[in-house]
Amino acid sequence: MNAAVRAVVRMGIYVGAKVYFIYEGYQGMVDGGSNIVEADWESVSSILQVGGTIIGSARCQDFRSREGRLKAACNLVQLGITSLCVIGGDGSLTGAHIFRTEWSGLLEELARDGKISTEQVQKHGHLNVVGMVGSIDNDFCGTDMTIGTDSALHRIIEVVDAIMTTAQSHQRTFVLEVMGRHCGYLALVSALACGADWVFLPESPPEEGWQENMCVKLSENRARKKRLNIIIVAEGAIDTQNKPITSEQIKELVVTQLGYDTRVTILGHVQRGGTPSAFDRILTQEVQKAMDERRFKDAVQLRGRSFENNLNTYKRLAIKLPDSEIPNSNCNVGVVNVGAPAAGMNAAVRAAVRVGISEGHKMFAVYDGFEGFAKGQVGPGGTHGEGLR
């Protein structure tokens, strides 16, 4: 959020506008005084790497009432502020929308009470509002990434990477719960990034009989000498009957059916929360309505093409089709790593092998680059690409 504050301040100064900090959110706007301070270029120096927001944020009961919004409007008019850039989630942007809608009426009431002049009403009669969505759920239609989403994903992956070390050492199964009461973006993308064995999403509930299918998948992975299992659960995960699927329920299933040492980790305390944006309320309501009516394919499509593509990619890479459903392409494909190692190469190899297998190709590993290729170091990559390097 500090990066957004910095960008707004410096761009405003660049175009010749006066830019003000409003400290402590809407509460500062209601209280006025020292809470509204003009910002300069240096005010936002060296804040990019600082977490949170330098201007603070606070819940404000006063702003929920018309009396509180009258005070806020009066404070803004006295400083000649008629444009607001609001950075926040559902509550913040909903409040901004209400404030903008009421603005002319608020000014007229202030003028009748003698708190501002008629000239001020005429001069500042329109309020411009720009909303910048701070929501780690990434559920805002029309933007690729909302503020906070990428940072939240980084924190999730860092925790998953740390947990995987323990899981491998002790041959454990970990059930990881991430935020997402109504949107499974974080769960889906983190499952893609870490190669999770199973993922539970609000928009795409597992099919009937998922309990048996998941246990079969976990046991097959153990049979291939995989020493850990990772299951990622969005906090709003549901089944096809709209009944919640909880982390503890999954743990109990794995322990009871497979006897695996299973632990639950809830990552809520390491994520900065966010809720659906106000300007996306119609979309959010439509998605929720689709889920309530068990139209889950519609819910996925309403999330947008990117979400749908991510879900299809995860299914393709994580779930092996039965042999009877895999076509025979009569095509042999070799996978070789060339050049210096780089982050993400194993993910690329994994994706190439599993997509190739799903298309019916026979996949081969070329060991040790072109040198190994020249020496004939070519062999099957395994059903899931084991042994590639």
Features:
11 strands, 4-stranded parallel β-sheet, 389 residues, 3-stranded mixed β-sheet, alpha/beta, elongated
Description:
This protein has helices spanning 2-14, 25-31, 66-78, 90-112, 118-123, 149-170, 185-194, 210-223, 247-258, 281-292, 296-302, 305-318, 345-358, 369-374, and strands at residues 20-22, 36-38, 83-88, 128-133, 173-178, 198-200, 229-234, 262-266, 332-336, 362-366, 378-380. Helices cover 44% and strands 13% of the residues. With 389 residues, the protein is an alpha/beta fold.
The first-to-last residue Cα distance is 40 Å
The number of distinct helices, counting runs of at least 4 residues, comes to: 14
Gyration radius, rounded: 26 Å
What oligomeric state best describes the polypeptide chains here? single chain
Structural class by secondary-structure content: alpha/beta
Q: What is the average per-residue confidence, as pLDDT, rounded to a whole number?
A: 84
User: Strand order of the main beta sheet, please?
Assistant: 6-7-5-8
- For the secondary structure, the number of strands is 11
Uncertain residue segments: 272-284, 383-389
